[in-house]
Amino acid sequence: MIHDLDLIVFDLDGTLVDSVPDLAAAANYALRRLGLPERSEEAHMRMIGAGEKNFVCRFLGPDHQELFDQALALYLEYYSQHLGDQTRVYPGVRETLKRLNPVKKAVLSNKREDLARQVVELMGLSGFFPTVRGGNSYGVLKPSGEGLKTLIKELGSDPARAFMVGDKPEDILAGRGAGARTVALTCGYSDPEVIAAAKPDFTVNGFSQLTDLFSV
Fold first, then answer.
1. Per-residue pLDDT tens for 112-126?
2. Is the pTM value of this prediction over 0.70?
């Protein structure tokens, strides 16, 4: 059990909330409006996690990149209005966050900050996270550790006493790059062997297991 912690930083999509239905709906809206074939939720799930621009590039596919600007505008138009329609907080998240209340907590997503804040608020999690940062907050995306490093400094914490919790290799690499320790969730959007290859410091199979890992 870990005792020397001061700050836990969480990824958002695939870690705190399951947002694939709304992300896929926004992507399919853009594809539909552009006369392109829609994709399954599972296919979209494999593409998310690197910010809006990369997601749009991926769901357009290599043969339709000339439509990027239109697709991005359509995607953001739809998603900004529907980001809470089908997104749900994962089981055990609220209860676990309550148990971790003595510890400072923040969100660092690759999603644009204003959109991440809206999701956190709509899902009723804003009381746990006074600090929410996104992919445009620091000018870098995970797996760069620079954003996380700046966030840790902003909150007056020491990287040696900070943890990054996420479901993607990008989260683990960002944590390592910032000098923080890392916790991989295998119940999110990455295959367990994929996130294991990033060599997290700790691995849990469900969000509720964080209370077994952290002593508060």
1. 999 999 999 999 999
2. yes
